[in-house]
Design a protein that fits this description.
There is one protein chain. This protein is α+β, with helices and mostly antiparallel strands. It is built from 4 helices and 11 strands.
C-alpha cells in the first residue's frame, strides 16, 4: 500500500506537471495525484476501505487525535478539527480556519476550493500539520469511519479524528 503511494507521487513529479484527474479526463492540479480507494487497497479479500457517504458525516465534528499513529497535541489554542455541514460543506481549523465544498466519491473526499484565513502559526508542530493537511484534502483522502473515529489516509499519512460530543 505505501509503495503504491510513493510510486504514484514519484511518477507525478518525474513525468510532468499535469496528470489526468481520476475519471475526469481533464488536467489535475500540478504535483497532485488523485486517489481512489483502489489505489490504496491492500488486497485483503472482502475488506472495504473508505466506504463513507455524505449521510455518515453530515452534522458531525471531529477533533484530531493522532497523526501517523502518534498522539497529536497543540501547545496553545484549539486542537485541529473537521466538521461537515449540509451539501458536504467541510469546515475546519488548525492555525487557520477554512471552509469549502467537499466532493465524496467512493469513499474518497477532496476539498479542492477551500477558502482559508492566513494567520501566522506560532506552534511549529501545528504549522507543519497544516501544510500537509491542506495538500491531502486537495488531492483526496480515503475516509474510514469506525464508530466515533474518522480516519483520513492519503499522501503517505494517516490522520485519526475522534468525534466531539
Amino acid at each position: 500500500m505505501m509503495r503504491k503511494l510513493i510510486l504514484a507521487t514519484a511518477f507525478a513529479f518525474a513525468f510532468g506537471p499535469c496528470l489526468p484527474a481520476a475519471g475526469e479526463g481533464e488536467c489535475a492540479a500540478p504535483g497532485f495525484v488523485y486517489l481512489t480507494p483502489g489505489d490504496l487497497a491492500d488486497g485483503e479479500e472482502g475488506k472495504t476501505m473508505g466506504r463513507v457517504d455524505e449521510a455518515d458525516l453530515q452534522g458531525r465534528k471531529f477533533v484530531l487525535a493522532k497523526v501517523d499513529g502518534e498522539a497529536f497535541a497543540v501547545a496553545t489554542g484549539e486542537q485541529p478539527f473537521l466538521a461537515f455541514g449540509d451539501g458536504l460543506l467541510v469546515t475546519g481549523s488548525a492555525c487557520n480556519s477554512f471552509r469549502g465544498p467537499g466532493e465524496l466519491v467512493n469513499g474518497v473526499l477532496a476539498v479542492a476550493n477551500a477558502a482559508s484565513t492566513r494567520r501566522m502559526c506560532i506552534d511549529p508542530n501545528l504549522a507543519g500539520f497544516e501544510r500537509y493537511f491542506h495538500r491531502m484534502l486537495q488531492s483526496g483522502v480515503v475516509l474510514t469511519l469506525e464508530g466515533a473515529t474518522l480516519t483520513l489516509a492519503g499522501g503517505g499519512r494517516t490522520l485519526e479524528y475522534v468525534e466531539e460530543k
